[in-house]
Each structure stands twice: as structure tokens, then as C-alpha cells.
Amino acid sequence: MVEDIIKKVKEKTDTIILSFSCGKESIVMWLILGDHFRIIPLYLYIIPGLGFVEESLKYYEGFFCNKIYQRPSQLLINMLRNCIFSAPSQFRGYSGLRLRGDYYGIIDDLKEELGIGDAYIANGMRANENLFQRLNLRKTGPIKRERKIFYPMHDWTNTDVEREIKKANIRLPIDYKLFGRSFNGIGYRFLKPIRERFPEDYKLILDWFPLAELEIKRMEYRDEHFRQARSE
């Protein structure tokens, strides 16, 4: 099935923007598509310059001998605009990011910058990850030509993904040890391990979102409240 999808996309373009998150699926996509297309890997950051993220990106750039482009993610844009863990006055200070409010706007900016208007986007979404993705892929199919996006691994299982990782002898980012998945937010699941393992990165997060520590305080208060309730 992957071969059929690759063949159909190659009829339209020889260049793809690979949506690279440092997650298992994005790594495997790079492995299986690298021999067929000119790859433009794109990492959409939640916080720019995090040390543990930069270390992973540097490793994959070396492994694949290819530059990884970085742009602000839609999540970062929305959090800033909606004053998540920050004050309204703070958003004005980030106007220099040239923020675009949607995923395809970010992609279109990169296409214009590199002169690759015919490029398709490779996305690692798989049907068996959750019900939403299964229904979405059932509705759209593995190639959305109007959006120039395709899902080469749409019918893969976790076993398929793990097999390719092992075959390539490529390491996973530290994210999987810290969070059990790739880094994709500033909720408690991510903040607490970062504060414990990478204090400088935690400080950088607070530079962008000064009130993010309230998320840790909230969970610590909740846990303490539950402990007290059980002991009574």
C-alpha cells in the first residue's frame, strides 16, 4: 500500500514537506520516503530553542544528512494569542515571529520561501492510533489532493513502526523516556519531567509562558488533597 501511495504522489511532485515531530511515525516516514523524494523536513516548535529538542534535531539532521527547517507551531501561536499561561501584553512582544494562525498558512509560507509550490505534505497519521484518526482517514483516504497532503503509513500498526525503527538502528528522542511520546505541549505531563531533568529548558518555557508553573502547582495541590482525603 505504501508503494502505491508513493507512486501516485510522485506523479504530482518529486518534493515533499515531511511533517517531522521527532515522533516514531515521523522518523519512519523519513526512512521509507527518503529514497523516493527530495525531503524538506519541517519541525513546528512549541517553544523555540529548547535544549533537549535541539539535541534531537541535531541528531536526526546528522543521521539523514539533511537540514530540518523550524517554524512556530499553530499550538504556540494559539497559546500566545489566547494568553494561555501569560498576560495579554506579552503577545505584542512576539510580533517579530511573523505568526500565521493555521497549519496550512505555515506550510504555504515555507513553500513560497523555498519555491516549492507543487510539494506535497507527508503526515504520519495512522488509523489505528485512535478513533478520530480512523474516522478522518476513512473519510479522506490516504491522499488529500486538494490540500496536497498524504498519509503514507495510514494503515500501519505499531508493530510495523517498531520494525522499521529497529531495522534502521536509529535512536528515539529522549522524549519517549520522559513523556512516553514526543513532546507536544506544556501540560503537567511534560512540564514536571522537564523541570526535574532540564531546569534550563524549564526556565525558557517560563520565559514564554510565565504562569505555566501554575499547572504543576495545581496538580501538586490535587495530589496532596487526595492523599489527605484517603488518610481521613
Task: Outline the structure in words.
The chain is an alpha/beta fold. It has a single domain (2-185), classed as Rossmann fold. Helices cover 52% and strands 10% of the residues. It is built from 12 helices and 6 strands. The protein has helices at residues 2-10, 24-33, 51-64, 74-81, 88-91, 103-114, 131-140, 158-168, 175-178, 188-197, 199-208, 213-231; strands at residues 15-19, 38-45, 69-72, 120-122, 143-144, 149-150. Strands 3-2-1-4-6-5 form a 6-stranded mixed sheet. A hairpin with a 4-residue loop joins strand 5 and strand 6 (149-150). Helix 2 (24-33) packs across helix 8. The model has no long low-confidence stretch (mean pLDDT 90).
Topology summary:
Elements: H1 2-10, E1 15-19, H2 24-33, E2 38-45, H3 51-64, E3 69-72, H4 74-81, H5 88-91, H6 103-114, E4 120-122, H7 131-140, E5 143-144, E6 149-150, H8 158-168, H9 175-178, H10 188-197, H11 199-208, H12 213-231
Parallel strand pairs: 1-2, 1-4, 2-3, 4-6
Antiparallel strand pairs: 5-6
Q: What is the total domain count?
A: 1
Q: Supply the CATH class.
A: Alpha Beta
Helix count from the secondary structure assignment: 12
Based on CA inertia axes, which overall geometry fits?
A: globular
Strand content: 5-15%
Q: Radius of gyration from the CA trace? A: 19 Å
State the distance separating the first and last CA atoms: 59 Å
Structural class: alpha/beta
Number of strands: 6
Query: Which percent bin holds the helix content?
Result: 40-55%
List segments where confidence is low: pLDDT < 50 over at least 5 consecutive residues. none
Give the full name of the CATH homologous superfamily: HUPs
